[in-house]
TrEMBL record:
A Pfam family annotated for this UniProt entry: RVT_3
Protein name: RNase H type-1 domain-containing protein
Organism: Dendrobium nobile
InterPro entries in the record: RNase_H-like, RNase_H-like_dom_plant, RNaseH-like_sf, RNaseH_domain, RNaseH_sf
Molecular functions per Gene Ontology: nucleic acid binding; RNA-DNA hybrid ribonuclease activity
RNase H type-1 domain segment(s): 15-132
Length: 168
């Protein structure tokens, strides 16, 4: 079983995800405070040729939102372990992604951050937003006071502390 955990102050938590499907690609993310209150969400279609490119693009966009909102302490969670390995220099990134990775690492220097892996099941809000981005026509900052009922339900489940069941 896995679950989403609230960040400790002064950190906010940024969960991002990239999605690559038959109809295109999307990126999404959600930023929440130590009480689990949603501070921002985003979803957008993106151009990419691989799942890792989608993940990189999603994190870059999430960091831009954090910067625009003035957040300096960020706990980043992604469900792509490969992305964490690239950021920590544990493995070299694909040369095709060189400039994206460079932009991502430069963006990270602006923050006090911690990055960790979260299983997809517990990253359901960001996963939903990334898939929503696949079906969107342009970048969207979703109105946090009028969120889609499915997304709102996932947020409430996360905040309740109930675990998600992970198979395999």
């Amino acid at each position: 079983m896995v679950k989403w955990i609230k960040p400790k102050p002064p950190y906010v938590k940024l969960n991002t995800d990239g999605s690559l499907g038959p109809n295109g690609a999307g990126a999404g993310g959600i930023i929440r405070n130590n009480n689990g209150i949603v501070l921002a969400t985003f979803a957008t279609p993106i151009y990419c040729r691989s799942a890792i490119q989608a993940e990189i693009n999603a994190l870059i966009l999430g960091l831009q939102v954090c910067s625009n909102l003035g957040f300096n302490f960020i706990w980043i969670e992604v469900d792509a372990a490969l992305l964490i390995q690239i950021i920590s220099n544990a493995i070299p990134g694909n040369p095709e992604n060189y400039y994206r990775i460079r932009k991502l690492k430069l963006s990270l220097t602006k923050f006090h951050y911690h990055i960790s892996h979260i299983f997809r099941e517990a990253n359901s809000c960001a996963d939903w937003l990334a898939k929503y981005g696949c079906d969107s026509t342009s970048y969207e900052d979703l109105n946090i006071n009028n969120l889609h009922p499915l997304l709102l339900g996932m947020i409430l489940l996360d905040n309740s502390g109930l675990p998600y069941i992970r198979y395999g």
